[in-house]
Records
---
Amino acid sequence: MKGRTVLITGAGTGIGAACARRLASEGANLVLVGRRREPLEVVAGETSGLVLAGDAASSSDWAHFIPAIVERFGGLDGVLANAGGHGMGRATDTRDEDWQAAMRANLDSAFYTARACLPLLAERRGSLVLMASIAALAAGEDVCGYTTAKHALIGLTRSLARDYGPQGVRVNAVCPGWVRTPMADAEMQPLMKHYGENLDAAYARVTAEVPLRRPASPEEIASICRFLLSEEASIITGASLVADGGSSIVDVPTLAFGRH
């Protein structure tokens, strides 16, 4: 990755920050995009990245971002569309504004990022990685907006891979399961309250039927993103790489037999 320029959205915390640190450790130039400047500045202090504070789902913000990137680095070799958010509730409990917020955070942010950056990636035959989820492959309970948006990201990945492959651009998705990030920590709070457990116990509970029996660390997901962004993955495009400790391979209807 030495000397390559990579843009990361949602770069201030969690998986995005872990990816920034991993890529910087290998000599990559970084562009750090996020809505909150303060955490971006912290990551930039560790990685010497260029901070661009704004909304990845805003075309007007990208109109300012792209010239700044070209002026500083001349172009892009890789993009990680990592920004995302929640989308909780069943369909009949989801207000218009909740639905729109879920689509904007999880799908629009990736689309607007891709649309703005693809011309630069095509110039250098670069790589685009979209951060999906195992919610792109199966439906959890009461997460209609999030599930729908993440499913759509797989379609976006395939469409972009098909259209821009002839220009040398590779496009892939990463589908993590539980990852110990601030966002996931917040999702553990209801379990912790209900069962009177600490955070470690809550994660153990949600991964009790996962073959590896644990969540991922942000650094583990960063390693996968680094691989897809590098030339080591030069023949891989249109793929959805699942990183969930094996949870998506479990035959759910047989779980009751294992409890006897």
Note: The chain is about 50% helix and 15% strand.
---
Amino acid sequence: MNALGLHGFGGPDVPRVLELPEPQAGPGQVRMRVHAAAVNPPDVLLRTGVT
């Protein structure tokens, strides 16, 4: 599974695509397929270090 990881503050070069193991659903849980995701303005401010 691919995921976007942030390990520090900075510009668009900071986020890295990470390869993670496929999650497994446990008892009473479900897995959902995500077709799209978005980034909110506060997420961008957090990434750049603005408080």
Note: The chain has a mean pLDDT of 86.
---
Amino acid sequence: MNTLYGTVITGMVTDENNDFYFIQKDGVTFAMDKQEDESLSIGDTVKGFVYESSQHKKRLTTNIPKVQQGKYAWATVTQVRKDLGVFVDIGLPDKEIVVSLDDLPQMKELWPKKNDRLMISLRVDKKERLWGILADEHIFRSVAKKGKETDKNKDITATAFRLKLVGTYVLTDDYYIGFIHPSERVDEPRLGEQLSGRVIGVRPDGILNLSLRRRAHEAIGDDAEMLLAFLNKSKDGSLPFWDKSDPDDIKQYFGISKGQFKRAVGNLLKRRMIEQKDGYIRLVK
């Protein structure tokens, strides 16, 4: 019987009450909520997905989820239990699926968080419990398209599916596999985290090399905002730095390179928000 859970069956309506139809398949009876279809009669056949609800009731739904035994699809994380794993929503009205902690990263800070997503299928254990199974790299490669040189410099959104010491593998929203080297990120992405980045290269096997770092002209904005924050916090709206300051002094004080500093200063000078004179930058009053 346990092979039925997580699959789509066709059964016969054998009984009903005010709230449910009762559908039988191979001697096993599943209840189906009448709100899904009130037109059925005893003797009709109905096709649906079968599972055990969170109240341990045998259920059938005609709203068939994409995630099934042997079928992989995205599922959204709804809850994290450090002692158990993560719960995901596959579209059932009264049931969430658990992905076991045994299948998650050893470092719990890299576990998915609420609203992250995982590509999973289903399995049934010996106690007839449904579990989510993470798709492996073979599954991702089987659905992925190969990147082309014309994809370079494109912006992408993607979901992290494999975390390794050498870097992070992701699947983009348009189904390309991407790789993020540790040098092309600030923090290591979580499993299931949805990311925004850009294509910086294409490997011979069609995998995209990605960067999560912003382009130079985009980063100027953040660095300029930081300089303004420092200037506004200073006593007189000035700081003893300019474009001839020592790179190490700039790095130690602001945490950015001299090149970033000069671009940020140039941006603020163009906007006439600061002036630069005698070794100082100052806010324009």
Note: The domain at 75-135 is CATH 2.40.50.140 (OB fold (Dihydrolipoamide Acetyltransferase, E2P)).
---
Amino acid sequence: MTTTSELRTARLATEPFRLAGPRPGFASGTLTSIRDILAHRELMGLLVRRELKARYKDSTLGFLWSLVRPLALLLIYYIAIGKFLGAARDIPDFAIFIYTGLTAWQLFAEIITAGTGSIVANSGLVKKVYLPREVFPLSVAGSGLFNFAIQLVILLGATFAVGKPPTGLRWAYLPLALAVLLVFAVAFSLLLSAVNVYLRDVQYLVEIALMIGFWMSPIVYSWGLVLREDVPDWVASAYVLNPITLVIMGFQRTFWVAGDGQPVPEDLAARLGICLAIGLVILWLCQRVFARLQSNFAQEL
């Protein structure tokens, strides 16, 4: 008489062998990883929904909590920097200006912060079943986009409230800037989530790096302040090498209609296009590093 254990062993014997480590070949391995991720897209969708439900479980306001932090930051910066320090006198529609930058930055920071700890947070699944480990950082990006969409609706409504909604070709900056943001955020998320499995201090270093990056981007101050006469030219040149700086400026070009007369880097769209091309290469390299490191995830966890 065949036992349940023997039946299970027989079924497992018919399953194809799957590598947990890097797929062979630098280019062919990338294609195999992409096909593997696409084959598990339904699972990734379930992980996104699980992330959203777990985040707001048993809360009364639910998804509205995704607006509380950016709105609180908006209020703090608007009062402290806009009113007390007088920044609002030099920046028209200062509230729209700040909220535009915060909307972009919150998406970038959320993907990197949550993505860095995504493998460790899902250690139970990693150790028990086979699945492409990339789905965990990617599911974080999916839930981040959901929150971003809510904030974007609020931002768009605010532009109508002040009587200056975005129109025309300025909308072309949004998909370009968003693509650059997602490419760099997912690339760093993949790399940092893999390294964090081996070195848990990474998640704390990420928090410090994001805090510094926030103040290195024109979110609570304008690009015009960087162009002051007492600021060396090389500082302004180095400043725009930061892709997230260009992303935030791209968002501002879309939604901050009152800032049309404010200075912006020359050829902003072209700069974003170059950043997108570079970011895709970085994303590819980060994925290959992730694939190389994932073979020992289960042992390390």
Note: The chain has a mean pLDDT of 83.
